Amino acid sequence: MTMVLRADALTKRYGRRTALSECTLEIPEGRVVGLVGPNGAGKSTLLNLAVGMLEPSAGSIEVLGERPRSGMAKVGFVAQDTPTYAGLSIDEHLRFGAELNPGWDADLARDRIARLGLDGSQRARKLSGGQRAQLALTLGLAKRPELLILDEPVASLDPLARREFLQDLMEAVVEHALTVVLSSHLVSDLERVCDYVVVLVDSRVQLAGDLDSLLATHHRITGPRRDEDTLPSELHVVGASHTDRQSTYLVRTQSPILDPAWTISQLTLEDLVLAYMGRTSRPQPRALEAVR
Description:
This protein has helices at residues 43-50, 90-100, 106-115, 129-142, 159-176, 187-193, 211-217, 269-277, 287-291, and strands at residues 3-14, 17-28, 32-36, 58-63, 75-78, 147-151, 179-183, 196-201, 204-210, 218-224, 236-242, 246-252, 263-265. By secondary structure, the chain is an alpha/beta fold.
């Protein structure tokens, strides 16, 4: 399996503050990857390291087999708040993109702008949030990247604009065989488009893997109150809650749960993400090894 991104003990510090800590991660080619975690978890730091806008404090990272550097031809990047130049028109953005990118696909860019019904003479400051996001996506796609990295591109958009943006993104993935890394704290959006998930909490990777595999190996079990140390060893406890008579555990296991005392229910991606986000005070789990 080809990996588009490899990080080994990747760390980024700003003075005494650690923004990313010993991140070890592999992202396979041809996937739509959801990078999720709370604000301040290190998502933007990881992505800025991946596109060469930051240098690691320790550890290493490779993207498409190379050390990242700013302006990599095969990597498209849409930063937070879908940055555009307020005083430039749409057409001027496209000309600027063509000058900076040797692999620029002018036909793709023009066709997308026409299909979106945008006026090329209109300046970016006059565009709605959704239109600016679509312009930024157009600039990223027209670069013809192998890897497209999007950092919270829809966080400020209304639900309709978010849906349209994500629908366009998925059409582009199919048409151009892209690998995408999409950072967001809007789990419901990620669940619609992603097939691979990375959960980042407190500057550390807590979980990473194929979405279907993650959901198949995590369960919520409910039954008579039972202490954690009495559970079978193959049940790795992610989270737990108790009443006087009842225990509920969120567990990870590769084995079937056969004890009839437990009622077993399946999880959504949101259930899974929230459970791992609640582990902030615990040591980093072995989830990466188990689900990769």
